[in-house]
């Protein structure tokens, strides 16, 4: 079957899917975590851990966010509680809550650590970082058109920057940015519902129907009057939700998490699919497919760039955002 390699993204290190990451030498990863936990038992580290548990109200979520095992994080917390002489959290059905002593500790140290983080951030801003790593998360569809131009333009003027690109669903992109595991995200606005994130509009994306080249359809179609058999993204993806919110009730005959897999299924005759109209014609031609404009209902989503609201983006991230806005305006 035909493939599609995007030259602009070909040389960019892409973070592998989590299903692959989880298969990589679990024993080695666990040993590495245990080693880190054993060497990070300073009061400062324990207080940082305490702050993260208090923010997330969950030991398991904090352990994942901090790249620690839950048992190791529990030991660090127990050591801090032993030093303080009082329990800092109580377990609840949904996670943990601060005790009175824990609340007093949080009130006392949180402003100080926020000030430390602000000073460190200010120093980094003044130095004007020109090399390093930028972690970018994007919904899968954008990597086939918009992100290719953004990445190519940014990399051409930042030769010493390592750009790590993560392709995910809209909710996953939001989670990566919110947790600090991605510096910037490109996502559909409908998925952004967090006060912790700042979003900037880039452009509106109109959808089209993609069918095999020999399928007889007019140039414009009303999907509400059609018996649709679709290949779609999984239910939690923004584009899948958009179809239902538009009042359409198609039969989803297959699901795929990547554009290539979806186009391969459509090419084999399984069904049609709905994707952004900016998908390159060259890619569709390789699969023997074509676009059909959707006249009704209007299927449109706004693409936004998201960053953490309470943190000034680093210079490199700001430069990447400037490139994205420039290309979006073209």
Automatic annotation (TrEMBL):
CDD domains: PBP2_LTTR_substrate
Entry keywords, A to Z: DNA-binding, Transcription, Transcription regulation
Record InterPro entries: LysR_HTH_N (IPR000847), LysR_subst-bd (IPR005119), WH-like_DNA-bd_sf (IPR036388), WH_DNA-bd_sf (IPR036390)
Domain named HTH lysR-type: residues: 45-99
Source domain of life: Bacteria
Family annotation (Gene3D superfamilies): 3.40.190.290, Winged helix-like DNA-binding domain superfamily/Winged helix DNA-binding domain (1.10.10.10)
GO CC terms in record: protein-DNA complex
Family from the record: Belongs to the LysR transcriptional regulatory family.
Name under which the protein is recorded: HTH-type transcriptional regulator gltC
Organism encoding this protein: Achromobacter aegrifaciens
